[in-house]
Design goal:
alpha/beta, UDP-n-acetylglucosamine1-carboxyvinyl-transferase, Chain, 2 domains, four-stranded mixed sheet, 12 helices, 25 strands, globular, binds shikimate-3-phosphate
Length: about 450
Amino acid sequence: MDAPNTKGRKLRTHLAGIQTRLTVPGDKSISHRSIILGSIAEGQTRVTGFLKAEDCLATIAVMRQLGVEINEELESDEIVIEGRGWSGLTASKQPLDCGNSGTTMRLLTGLLAGQPFESQLIGDASLNQRPMGRVMEPLGAMGASLSGYLETELPPLVIQPVDKLTAIDYEMTVASAQVKSAIMLGALQAEGETTIIEKVLSRNHTEEMLRLFGVDVEVKRKAIRIRGGQKLTGQRVEVPGDISSAAYFLALGLLLPETEIKIENVGFNETRSGILDVIQAMGGDLKIEPRDNGISADLTVRSSPLKNTVIEGSIIPRLIDELPVIALMATQANGVTMIRDAEELKVKETDRIQAVASQLNAMGANIIPTEDGWLIRGQTDLQAADVNSFGDHRIGMMLQIAALLVKEGTVHLADASCVNISYPSFFDTIESLEKPSEGIK
Ligand code: S3P
């Protein structure tokens, strides 16, 4: 396991009046899946727009350890995966290191549960605290042999080969795309047809991408049906910009005075676009221009007075990763914003309910953490303070956006290098916001 990545940073502060356009790196969820599905497909998969950040690089490293050839074509900026089919993976002599990435560990658990060799999945200190029982339980019901650290449901995980997996009918207990995807990867190696019922819809990239790779996945409202024994065929995958990374600049454009920011080619998927609904509910000036490719849109935001709102229920999985920066938006809105039904935030890369409240309150915000969200008083003046990301990329990036609203003093962020998990060029983009831009039509 690597040493923790803990470099601190003096954050940029006090920005206003910017007019700019930018792009954000590729979607993290789609990038992970392109590597995993490309590896078990037959034939070659070529991926453009892949997110070269620590999380997705961990998935590449793990699939290479399992015998898959994955190359980077420097001229075309494509990742090329030589698919090995379901039966072409080979055992790794070393544990498979998923780093900080819950997506890598949970999806790989589903994939490896049906493979004829033993695997060990390890992660960093944060991942070692994240619950794996949610994938162990349904995969165990299929007949998989999985065990956690010292009989807990925490990593490291050991996956033993079994004679066969059998299809299940499963009602999801948490709204989690990682769990749903792990079950689908297990189901494809099982005898029979698996049904997964979701109470609340989570992101559907696995369903969509399995279809792209030629798998028959039936989705009727909240029921997914998938037959075992289906083959995947290598494809071309185009990865659009990540809406979770765009979220920081959407918030910035709304919160800074005299500002307009256009973010180009942002992945647009109904199961991920909750933040756009919230911006509209808060009265934010947002323009959405869908692109002809059918998968992305250009998003333009302008400085706006925001009003308070309530965020709860089925929208939560559609914006779960954006909640830290939405909480920041609420600190500047008019009135008290309530966010609830988001207890999943407690089991992300850190406890995001506590991290958001403690760090923004250190900067002068007025946020009450609750069991499943926050009560956030608006129109608070943010001030300079020493803050901490707790090694969580989404907390670190949110705090940098908060710092840009601070008018004087120094904001120091401990553990700033965690942005490399999903957005290695984040601070470069922040620094470049100063440079003269071409303006926006
Ligand atoms: C992801 C699903 C979400 C999300 C994570 C990425 C995925 O997690 O928070 O950043 O790619 O499937 P859960 O499935 O645990 O909700």
